[in-house]
C-alpha cells in the first residue's frame, strides 16, 4: 500500500455499531488495498453520457433493472434455473493476491450452481481507482465492481444501483438468513448512512466486505517479557507500559510517514471525539488550537519523545519501515489498520503473537471521545445501474459475500469476515473487544485529515517537529494557531 492510494480519507458518517463485532479489512486492506476514488475522480472520464446507447437507452435500461430488482426482492429469492447470460466483475485485487483465490472459488461455486451464466473477472488491482469511472462513463460492460463505498457513492453515484429490495433475498450459506441479515449490522448501517450525504436517496447501494478498523497492534511476546498482563485502557496505563518496555531495552512505539496522521488523530479523537477534531483542522481563526487539550497533547508528545518511548527512527521512517520493525520484534506497538497482520505476515512469520487494542482513553476530554468511538470502514461490492443482467449480477454478489467466501477471506487473507457468526482470524481475535466497546463510527484519521491541504501540509509536518524534539510544547501551540489563521486567510 502507499499513502496516495488511501481511500479512508472519505468522511464516514457517524453510525451506531450493532450487537455483533465489526470487521477489519485485508486491504481492504492496506491503504493501497482501500479503493481511493480520488484518482478516479481526476481520471480522463468520458463525456458523462450513458455511453453508446445514449441517455434514453440508459434510462430505459436502468428502469428495467429497478423493476427486476423489485420483482426479485418481493419474492425474497431468485430462481437460479432462469439465470443466464454473462456477468462482468471488476475486482480491486490482482490475480496474485490471496483475495483473488477466494474470489475464484466463489465464482466457480456460482457457475456450478448457475451453468447458463458465464462470469468474467477482471483483476485490476489498485488501478481500478483510476479506471472504473472512465469505464463506467464510456458505457463499458461492467456488472459488478469493488470500491470504497464512501468514494463510490460520492464519485460514481450516477452508476450505482439501489439494492434495498435485493437484500431481502436469501443469502448463500447463511442458515436461512437474508443477505441483509447475514451481514454485520454495523457495516450495513454505515453503508446506508453514506447515501444521503452523497446526494442519493436513502438506502443501500453497496454490500460491505473486506472491513477494517484502526487499532494499536502489539507484539504479545514483548509485552509478556516485561510483565504486561493486560492491554492499556487509559493514557496513564499506556505510559506505564511504555516505561516497562523502555526499561527492558525495547522501543515502545513506532510509525512511518504513511501513518503519522493516526497518532495525532488518535489522541484528539480519544480525548474529544472526531467531530471536535474535524472542527480543529477546519478552524479558520486558529483559536481552537489554543484549547487546553492541544497544550496537553503537545506536552504528552514531548514526554514520549523525552522518555524515548518513540522509536528513534520515526523522523526518517518511510513506509513500510515502521511496520517492518514491529514484525521483526524491534518495536512493540504500531497504530495501524486490521490489514496489518496479513500485510507483514511474510516478515513476522507464523509464530508472531499478535495483539490489538484501541487508542487508550485520554483524560480531560469532553466526554465524546474514548473507546466508544472506533475508526472503521470497509470495501464494498456494487452493481452498475446500467447492467443488462442485474439478477445474475446480484446472485454472483451473494456468493462473494456468502459465508464460505467470507470465511475464506479470513483463513486465506487474514481478513475479518463481513458475515455474522463467522470465525475471525486468530491474529485479529482481540480486535473483537474494540468492536464491542465502540458505539459510533469515526472517520479515517479520527478527523485529523479532514483539513485537506492544511492537514497534510501543516498539521502532520509540525507534529513531527514536536515528536522529534525540534519544537517545544508552548511553541507548538503558538505555531499551530498562527499557521491555521494564515492558511485560511482569504479562503
From TrEMBL:
PROSITE patterns: PROKAR_LIPOPROTEIN (PS51257)
Taxonomy, superkingdom: Bacteria
Signal peptide: 1-23
Keywords: Signal, Transport
Matches recorded under Pfam families: SBP_bac_1
Family assignment from sequence similarity: Belongs to the bacterial solute-binding protein 1 family.
Name under which the protein is recorded: Extracellular solute-binding protein
Lineage: Bacteria, Bacillati, Bacillota, Bacilli, Bacillales
Amino acid at each position: 500500500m502507499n499513502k496516495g492510494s488511501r481511500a479512508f480519507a472519505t468522511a464516514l458518517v457517524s453510525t451506531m455499531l450493532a450487537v455483533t463485532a465489526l470487521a477489519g479489512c485485508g486491504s481492504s486492506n492496506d491503504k493501497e488495498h482501500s479503493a481511493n476514488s480520488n484518482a478516479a475522480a481526476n481520471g480522463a472520464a468520458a463525456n458523462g453520457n450513458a455511453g453508446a446507447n445514449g441517455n434514453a437507452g440508459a434510462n430505459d435500461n436502468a428502469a428495467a433493472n429497478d423493476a427486476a430488482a423489485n420483482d426479485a426482492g418481493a419474492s425474497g429469492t431468485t430462481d437460479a434455473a432462469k439465470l443466464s447470460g454473462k456477468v462482468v466483475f471488476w475486482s480491486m485485487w490482482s490475480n496474485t493476491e490471496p483475495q483473488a483465490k477466494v474470489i475464484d472459488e466463489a465464482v466457480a461455486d456460482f457457475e456450478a450452481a448457475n451453468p447458463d451464466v458465464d462470469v468474467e473477472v477482471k483483476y485490476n488491482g489498485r488501478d481500478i481507482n483510476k479506471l472504473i469511472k472512465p469505464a463506467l462513463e464510456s458505457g463499458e460492460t461492467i456488472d459488478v465492481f469493488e470500491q470504497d463505498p464512501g468514494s463510490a457513492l460520492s464519485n460514481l453515484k450516477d452508476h450505482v444501483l439501489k439494492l434495498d429490495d435485493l437484500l431481502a433475498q436469501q443469502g448463500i450459506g447463511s442458515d436461512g438468513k437474508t443477505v441483509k441479515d447475514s451481514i454485520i449490522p454495523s457495516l450495513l448501517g454505515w453503508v446506508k448512512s453514506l447515501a444521503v450525504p452523497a446526494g442519493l436517496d436513502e438506502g443501500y447501494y453497496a454490500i460491505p466486505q473486506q472491513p477494517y478498523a484502526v487499532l494499536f497492534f502489539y507484539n504479545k511476546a514483548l509485552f509478556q517479557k516485561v510483565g504486561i498482563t493486560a492491554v492499556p485502557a487509559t493514557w496513564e496505563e499506556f505510559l506505564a507500559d511504555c516505561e516497562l518496555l523502555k526499561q527492558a531495552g525495547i522501543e515502545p512505539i513506532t510509525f512511518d510517514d504513511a501513518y503519522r496522521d493516526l497518532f495525532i488523530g488518535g489522541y484528539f479523537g480519544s480525548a474529544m471525539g472526531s467531530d471536535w477534531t474535524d472542527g480543529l483542522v477546519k478552524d479558520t481563526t486558529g483559536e481552537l488550537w489554543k484549547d487546553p487539550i492541544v497544550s496537553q497533547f503537545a506536552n504528552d508528545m514531548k514526554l514520549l519523545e523525552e522518555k524515548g518511548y518513540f522509536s528513534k527512527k520515526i523522523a526518517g521512517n518511510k513506509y513500510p519501515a515502521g511496520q517492518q520493525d514491529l514484525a521483526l520484534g524491534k518495536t512493540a506497538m504500531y497504530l495501524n489498520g486490521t490489514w496489518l497482520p496479513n500485510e507483514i505476515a511474510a516478515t513476522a512469520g507464523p509464530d508472531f503473537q499478535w495483539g490489538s487494542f484501541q487508542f487508550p482513553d485520554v483524560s480531560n476530554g469532553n466526554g465524546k471521545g474514548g473507546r466508544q468511538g472506533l475508526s472503521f470502514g470497509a470495501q464494498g461490492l456494487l452493481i452498475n445501474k446500467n447492467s443488462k443482467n442485474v439478477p445474475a449480477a446480484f446472485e454472483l454478489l451473494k456468493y462473494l459475500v456468502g459465508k464460505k467466501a467470507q470465511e475464506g477471506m479470513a483463513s486465506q487473507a487474514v481478513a475479518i469476515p463481513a458475515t455474522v457468526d463467522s470465525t475471525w482470524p486468530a491474529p485479529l481475535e482481540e480486535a473483537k473487544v474494540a468492536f464491542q466497546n465502540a458505539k459510533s463510527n469515526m472517520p479515517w484519521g479520527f478527523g485529523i485529515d479532514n483539513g485537506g491541504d492544511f492537514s497534510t501540509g501543516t498539521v502532520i509536518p509540525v507534529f513531527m517537529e514536536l515528536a522529534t524534539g525540534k519544537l517545544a510544547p508552548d511553541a507548538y501551540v503558538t505555531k499551530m494557531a498562527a499557521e491555521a489563521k494564515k492558511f485560511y486567510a482569504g479562503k
